[in-house]
Each structure stands twice: as C-alpha cells, then as structure tokens.
Backbone:
C-alpha cells in the first residue's frame, strides 16, 4: 500500500537572540493508510515541533515532507472551543473557514452530534459541557473536515486521570471505526500503548527516531481500556520504558 | 418553595436589609446635602450670589427650558461628544487591527503612542483652534484627542493578549490571518472593547468641554465659561449638574448595550 505520509531526513532548529536550539535532527518515518502511531520521547524533545512540521504550520529547515492526500486534522493539547459560540457553531468553525458550509455539511454536523451523543447539547455553550464532552466536540470539529491524517498533540493532557481514560478509550475507538490514519504525540507511555499499533520512541533533543515498537493485541482485547489489563501491555510498557531511559 | 432552610431565609432577609440601608443612605445623603445647601443660602450662612442654591439652580433651569435655549446647549455638547466617541471607537479598533497585523509597525509606533497618550491633551486645544478654527470640528477633534491614544493602546494590548493557541487553532483549520482576526481576536476582545468604550465616553465628554471652553458659541462648556465671566453662578452650577446627569446617562447607555450584547450573544 502507498504511504500516506513520508518524512525524509527532517532537521529543524529554533532561532533566538541568545542562540539556536536544534529540535529535530535527521528524522525519517512513514505512515500507511489506517495506521495509528504514537510518538513518545523525553519531554521537550521536539514532539510538538514534529507535528507542526507535518501539518505545514512551519516549514522544515532541511528535509522533505511528502503527503498523499492533503487533508490534515490537527487536535491541540486543549480543546480550544470558542466560548462565544455554541457547540454546533464550534463544530462548523473549520467548515466556515474553508467556505464549505452547505446543506450537506450542515446535515453531516448534526449527524455527528447525534452519533457521538451530543445532540442535546447542539445549542449549549462550551462552558456547560464536561471536559470529556468538550474534547469530543473538538474531535468532531476536526473529523467533520474529513481529514486523511489526524495529528493529536497530547489531546488528553488537560483532563483528569479518570476522564482521560474514558475519553482516550472513546476517541481511540472513534478513530479506529472511521479508519483514520493518526499520529498521537504523548508523554504518557500507557496512553501510547493503549491506543497505537506502533510506538515510535524519539531520542533526546535534537530528536530523531530511536526505535519503533510494533504493538499487537489479541482481537478480543483490542480496545484502549481492555488493552491495559493484558499481560502484553506490561511487557510493552517495560520495553519502551527501558528504551526511553537507556542512557541514564 | 418549602425546601428553603431557615438559615437561607435569614440570609436573604439580611441581604434585603443591607440593600435597603445602602439605597436609603444614598438618598438621604443626597437630600441632606441639598437641604443644607438651600438652608445655608436662605439664612445667609453662605453668600447666595457666589454659592447659589438648589432652588435658584432649578429656577434658572426652568427659565432656560421655557426659552428653549438649554436644549441647544445640551444638544450641541451631546452631539459633539457622541460623534467624537463614535470616531474614537472606530479609529481605535481600526488602528489596533492594523497594528495586530504588523508586529513591526506596532514596535515602530509604540513609543509615539505612549508619548501622545501621556501628553495632557488640554495643551493641544489652543493649537487645534489655530489649525481648524473655532468650529464644531475643532471641538470634536479635541474630544477625540483625549480618548484616542489611550484607547488605541488598550485595544492593541487586548488584541495582543489573545491566546496564541486559539490563533493556532485557526491556522490548523487552514484559516488565514484575516480569519484569525474575525473568528478569534475580535470576538474574544469584545469585553475589552466594551469596557474601553465605558472609559472613552467619559474622556470624550472631558475633551468636548475643554474644546467648548476655548472655541464655542454654544454648548455646556461655553455656558460654564460664559457664566463664570459674567458671574452668573446659577448658570454655572446648573451646567455642572446637567453634565453630571449627562455623564451618568451616557455611561448607563453603554451599560445597556453591554447587557443586551451579553443577552443575545
């Protein structure tokens, strides 16, 4: 199958008046349609920079980003719902920006709200929603643009642990069901293993790929929450933990 | 209703009492002040020629209502204040927008704005008269000059303080900078814009009165200067009272706009 995304030898530095900081160094990776990849690495190693480069928000200094299918959906760390818009108008924000509001997309928006249990909150203000619901609204706002590739930048980090588990489960299953290709950046190893079918471990800054750990679970235990209760899960956890801390 | 506890009822009662005391005391203070003033003037404790009295002020107001001259003065001042207020609002949002688009322009112009803002604007009024003549335009410009620079600085600050991640969100949805402005920056600055308007309406009134002191043939500022020169202190005090009412009314108007906005958006 053709790669949906290819990063070839990406290097990138940030420039400040007090010097430059190299964030990424000779980083390469590729993704196929339907892949769910987690990226973990030491904090501040340039994970978010990587997503910004993939999404085209910042052009890389060196190297090449090759995308097949140009639609990228990007979920940021917080939901960033706009408080002055109701849930429905938050969801259609992207459509509005891309001038894609039609009867069809409007219907689609209501359909997604219905499907993900938010129909009763169509006209609610974001402040009336729980953290998990807000995250779901943010996901619908991204999914409604029908992205070929989803970028998730620690999308659950603002939630408390309890909500985080259930929202992670929830959103993980939604992404699987829609058969989306996704890259999840996180510092939470358990989250990375419970969601992805490949975990990419990055090195310290400047980041490059250290190892890629393929993840597989028996089919009957293949939801994010069930995965956490299997013996394989602990094994993966220990292996990746060791990879991350091998230099210490 | 029967699930309200005894303590809650007591609390509500205390609240009501508190509010009643506050309103009553306000009214009492106001009336006591007027009475003291009136009686002191009546019994000659203060010189009624210099200090006038509430009844004289009221009488004076009534006379001017009858000959309709007061409406001209109030109308002129109100008109000039509102025009300069509207222009200040439009210009400051416009400038803040331009400065938001160009970080460079912001850094270049900032020191000039700061200096112009800290300058005592009454110093500009004589200059404006020479340049623009003794016309309503001068007075409107004087009104604007007091509020404009501070307002631009305030608006610019609030535009710059918008959460950068919310702007990033617009870019991740492949929006343009203009869309970041219209979808995020302006809507999230509405509370700042409104509170800025509350300050500006008062400042515009100050500027208009300064302008009228120097270059007007009608308006409340003119009336104040004229009456002080001919020692008609009834007129002077009446003008000040009307200014109080005017300032209060304009402020209340913006409060109302804010309430309506919060209700419907």
Residues:
């Amino acid at each position: 199958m053709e790669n949906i995304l290819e990063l070839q030898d990406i290097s990138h530095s940030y420039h400040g008046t007090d010097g430059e900081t190299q964030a990424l160094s000779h980083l390469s990776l590729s993704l196929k349609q339907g892949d769910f990849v987690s990226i973990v690495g030491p904090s501040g190693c340039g994970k978010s920079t990587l997503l910004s480069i993939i999404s085209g928000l910042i052009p890389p200094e060196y190297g090449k980003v090759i995308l097949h299918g140009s639609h990228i959906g990007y979920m940021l760390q917080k939901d960033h719902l706009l408080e002055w818009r109701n849930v429905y108008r938050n969801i259609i924000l992207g459509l509005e920006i891309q001038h894609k509001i039609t009867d069809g997309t409007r219907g689609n928006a209501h359909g997604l709200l219905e499907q993900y249990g938010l129909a009763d909150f169509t006209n609610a203000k974001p402040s009336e929603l729980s953290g998990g619901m807000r995250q779901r609204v943010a996901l619908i706002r991204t999914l409604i643009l029908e992205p070929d590739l989803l970028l998730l930048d620690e999308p659950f980090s603002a939630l408390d642990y309890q909500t985080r588990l259930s929202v992670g489960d929830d959103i993980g299953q939604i992404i699987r069901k829609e058969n989306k290709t996704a890259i999840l950046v996180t510092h939470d190893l358990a989250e990375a293993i419970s969601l992805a079918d490949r975990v990419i471990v990055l090195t310290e800054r400047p980041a490059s790929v250290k190892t890629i750990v393929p993840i597989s679970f028996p089919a009957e235990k293949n939801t994010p929450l069930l995965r956490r209760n299997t013996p394989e899960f602990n094994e993966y956890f220990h292996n990746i933990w060791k990879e991350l801390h091998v230099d210490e | 209703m029967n699930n309200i506890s005894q303590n809650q009822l007591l609390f509500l009662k205390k609240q009501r009492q508190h509010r009643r005391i506050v309103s009553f005391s306000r009214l009492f203070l106001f009336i006591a002040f007027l009475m003291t003033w009136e009686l002191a003037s009546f019994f000659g404790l203060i010189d009624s020629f210099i200090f006038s009295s509430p009844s004289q002020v009221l009488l004076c107001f009534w006379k001017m209502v009858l000959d309709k001259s007061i409406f001209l003065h109030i109308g002129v001042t109100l008109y000039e204040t509102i025009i300069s207020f509207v222009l200040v609002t439009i210009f400051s949002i416009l400038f803040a927008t331009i400065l938001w688009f160009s970080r460079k322009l912001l850094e270049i112009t900032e020191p000039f704005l700061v200096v112009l803002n800290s300058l005592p604007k009454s110093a500009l009024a004589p200059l404006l008269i020479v340049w623009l003549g003794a016309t309503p335009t001068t007075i409107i410009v004087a009104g604007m000059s007091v509020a404009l620079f501070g307002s631009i600085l305030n608006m610019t600050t609030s535009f710059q303080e918008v959460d950068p991640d919310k702007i990033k969100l617009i870019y991740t949805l492949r929006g343009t900078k203009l869309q970041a402005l219209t979808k995020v920056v302006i809507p999230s600055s509405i509370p700042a814009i409104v509170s800025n308007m509350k300050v500006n309406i008062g400042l515009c009134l100050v500027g208009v009165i300064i302008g009228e002191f120097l270059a007007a043939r009608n308006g409340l500022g003119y009336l104040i200067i004229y009456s002080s020169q001919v020692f008609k202190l009834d007129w002077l005090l009446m003008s000040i009272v009307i200014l109080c009412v005017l300032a209060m009314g304009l402020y209340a108007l913006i409060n109302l706009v804010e309430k309506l906005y919060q209700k419907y958006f």
In short: Chain B has a mean pLDDT of 92.
